[in-house]
Amino acid sequence: MGKQLIYEPMTVITDLILAGMTAWFAWELSAWYWERLMNIHWHFSRAFWMLALGALLGAVSHGIGPHLSPGVKDLIWKLTTVSIGFASFFLLMSALYHVFPFDTIRLLRWIPIILLVGYLLIIWRDPRFINVIRFYAPAMIFVLLVMLYSYFANSTSGSGWIIAGILVSFAAAGVQMSGFTLHKHFNHNDIYHVIQMVGMYLLYRGSLLLNDFGVVK
């Protein structure tokens, strides 16, 4: 009996769908940026590009990972963790542009930049998933808090979509870590990807409605 060509076909399919969705969201937000020229849309589009890259690398890892050499598998995993770090950074910057004026951002932006550089140095030497969580989770909690402030203080409709998207993404991560499986061909990773599709759509819808600080359009 020959070697299995694709080791986790359903995980590969759901990863590719997620990659396609987020790439399309990134493309649409790039066009939205050129129409409205707001920093928040530029940073959201970059976050979605990074998420698309992460999902694509995940498809490669789950599909043909066992065929690859240990060195190549390690490189793919490190690039995946890097993409998650950059996605978190761009989402952080989006939140900052939403609640702070540009002059303040020029000072505050160094905090996410320093955190990102520190994360990249750590993750390249020690790419354990716990180190990814230590950067990603606080970043998303900060974005969530910013959007909660925006929603309750300014009644910004887009922030409500972002809040829902982050909460759905947290729920997806919880399902993945639980190991819950519906079927032998639809495991916890597949469920995670499907729930994440919903979360990414909510983030996308919200990002279209948000503006830079002080801009009303």
Give an account of the 3D structure.
This protein is mostly helical. The chain has one domain. It has helices at residues 9-36, 39-64, 70-99, 102-108, 110-125, 129-154, 157-178, 188-209. The longest helix is centred in the middle third of the chain and has 30 residues, at 70-99. It starts with 8 loop residues before the first helix and ends in an 8-residue tail after the last helix. The relative contact order is 0.14.
SS-derived structural category? mainly alpha
State the end-to-end distance. 63 Å
Quick one: biggest sheet? none
Order of SSEs: HHHHHHHH
What is the total number of structural domains?
Answer: 1
Number of helices: 8
**Which percent bin holds the helix content?**
over 70%
Blueprint (SSEs and pairs):
Blueprint: H1 9-36, H2 39-64, H3 70-99, H4 102-108, H5 110-125, H6 129-154, H7 157-178, H8 188-209
Defining key terms:
single chain, 217 residues, mainly alpha, 8 helices
Short description:
The protein is mainly α and 217 residues long.
